[in-house]
Amino acid sequence: MSDIFGLFHRQAYAMAIKLKLxxxxxDEAISIVDGTFGKTWLKEICMKIxxxxxxxxxxxxxxxxxxxxxxxxxxxxLLELAMYLKKLCRTKNVEDVIRILKDNYSTxxxxxxxxxxxxxxxxxxxxxxxxxxxxxxxxxxxxLCGNTYIAECFVPRARLEDSSKELHYVIDPAMEALxxxxxxxxxxxxxxxxxxxxxxxVINKExxxxxxxxxxxxxxxxxxxxxxxxxxxxxxxxxxxDFPKLPxxxxxxxxxxxxxxxxxxxxxxxxxxxxxxTKPVERMHRIFVWKCxxxxxxxxxxxxxxxxxxxxxxxxxxxxxxxxxxxxTKRKIVICQAHEGMIRDFEAYKVVSKIRSKIILKxxxxxxxxxxNRYWTNKKRYQYTGSIxxxxxxxxxxxxxxxxxxxxxxxxxxxxxxx
Length: 419
Prior knowledge:
Blueprint: H1 3-14, H2 16-19, H3 26-37, H4 39-47, H5 62-69, H6 72-87, H7 94-103, H8 105-120, E1 124-128, E2 140-144, E3 147-154, H9 168-179, E4 184-191, H10 197-212, E5 219-223, E6 227-234, E7 258-261, H11 270-274, E8 286-290, H12 293-302, H13 305-322, E9 330-337, H14 346-360, E10 366-376, E11 382-390, H15 396-402, H16 404-409
Parallel strand pairs: 3-9, 4-8, 9-10
Antiparallel strand pairs: 1-2, 2-3, 4-6, 5-6, 7-8, 10-11
């Protein structure tokens, strides 16, 4: 077993029963991934650390994380991907999707996942990256109910960058400084304005100095134009309520936006922890961060119904404009991965309704708009669940077949391994 697959192989078999995995497929899945992407590329992505996330050694590419972390979600993700590659290996232009999976994984995964789902509902002439009349390419094409459909897949990106993430670069040096002093400290960093790399460096310098002066001091503060820093001594034996303890509980100390705990486990517990089991942790230093009020207000505005509707509508319209078709013979489908697709509250329902009125009712030659979202279920599987909006070029036969996608989303995806 190659070193790059060693951890994944051990973890997959160790968790196979708990995750109800298709055990007979594990070795085959590894061979498929190895043969598809090649050892050279796989080794490269396992070594390439995402420098924008300096707190944890996440890899730049998701497949690198699957192989290097090998937790529950990583194992299910990689087996699911391998199943798609196996089932669609003879599909025309599959090599183009493999390239997209390397360069833009989230979009490539959406593309291959829905191509597989279309194959399950019985489409014919399934093809990746079909050439359109403008010489540009679509993402998927197929025939269904006597008509040809061209599907475009995309995953919208958020434009606002959370400036508090700059403080990720502060965590490691701060934790190192905390290790050198006695006692257990709680560090609170409350931003007063949006920061950039230059301001982050000033904060880092001030924080390290404050930590060095905090030994044997119950509480110490420092304030600049950008930040308020407070360091408190935690008393031994005091009940630790800084981090959530109950499933589904997300509240941190003081309603902080995010926090980091320097944890210590005995080496004998590491294998059990990798399997998702909870083990006792020694109480240690922790750092909490609060975003500035300006950033919170921007986020609030961006989460408003009007903003979400307008932003998503613009992106969907741009995608529709990219698909130039012969209107007599081909029809458009857009597959958009966005959390609004999961109608779990009235706000999401209103977003979907407004998108229907802004796009579906105003444009021609649209067969359907699929608003979907990928999420981890309590059955230890990922599912694509969402809303299907039908346009003017839809018909009863098409709609009947597309409704089968809902049934697929409710079924364990590995049930289709032998389909």
